[in-house]
Known about the structure:
Elements: H1 13-21, E1 43-55, E2 61-74, E3 79-88, E4 100-111, E5 117-124, H2 147-151, E6 157-168, E7 171-178, E8 208-217, E9 220-230, E10 244-256, E11 259-270, H3 273-284, E12 293-304, E13 313-328, E14 340-353, E15 356-367, E16 376-385
Antiparallel strand pairs: 1-2, 1-16, 2-3, 3-4, 4-5, 5-6, 6-7, 7-8, 8-9, 9-10, 10-11, 11-12, 12-13, 13-14, 14-15, 15-16
Amino acid sequence: MTSRNKFVDWNRPVLLTVFLMGAVPAAHAQAPAAAPPREGVPTLSGYMEMHLNKVQDQPAAVDLHRFVLMIGHSFSDRLKFWSEVEVEHAFVEGGEETGEVAVEQAYLDLVINRRLNLRAGMVLVPVGIQNERHEPPTFNGVERTFVDSVIVPTTWRDTGAGLFGDLGGGLSYRAYVLPGLDAAGFSAEEGIKGGRQQGSRADISEPAIAGRLEWRRGGLTSGASFWRGGSGFGLIRLDIETPAVGVGSLDARYRLGRHELRGQWSMVNIGGAGDLNRALQAQSGISPNIASRLMGAYAEAATRVSPNAWAHEVVVFGRYELFDTQNKMPEGFLPRQEFQRSALVVGATYYPDPDVAFKFDVVRERNKSSVVRAPWQLNVGVGWWF
């Protein structure tokens, strides 16, 4: 894309989907899944990522973005525990936005058989690629994708309970009942992100269901996932119908030799967005301009360029993203064009070890606005897990 006038029409997501399903993947090093807890022996794991970001016309900033410890324990061969505690931005002081300490996962698994098992606690919502799998060595780029940050608000987690299992033939599933969202936190720029309850005294008067079906065969991993629930409990004093939210996502990853292709298409529908905007405007005096539909998609190609004789690996990649939080507006509202966005990301990753990644990329954002210009950005980072 060479200019804002060539911004891709959002009514053509099928083209990206076709590209994804025909993908051929990059064989860059990816850390294996953490080992399951052994009976009676606690398991310790973790990851860290540090970033240097230079945004156009702003000073460069370095940030210890995340430090995470994971602890697991097997009470028996049928009862297992897993947890993840995260510190963001190095430290937390009071309630200001200097950092965050959060329980990202904390759940018990009751193993019944391969096909049917129970899970309860703080779980990751199984939508998209990165929400459940976001350790630094497992993805290209210093920052997580825009689609997995703006459309699907990674990391999205909440208290819940449900089922999971392996159905055979490479097919597996996860399905949970979770609290709904708080529509009072929705926005034009970040969609439903501000509506996550994240397990903190979560109101479950309007519960949601979420699930993912995943299929693996050879170098291909493909998935379909969803979330659907109410989001009006924060608006109980307002005379509007409860806004229902639906999230759907398709994704695919494919590896062949040195190469990998991956991609994702995600959509969010917000029912009654017009009434929601008017109700929130009556409270604050400002319309949040929440869309009735958000859309995002990306396609990424990567290849390992280091010689086979090298013990270390170097991977180069390119990714194109579309992320539009104003894709369809309710009647009577116009889209804010600066939030109809795209991005081209190119970069490289160096793996001195499969579990350690040194990253570099350049991001060129664009939007449909002729007034608000999207910035370019330079990112350098390092991340590891064990």
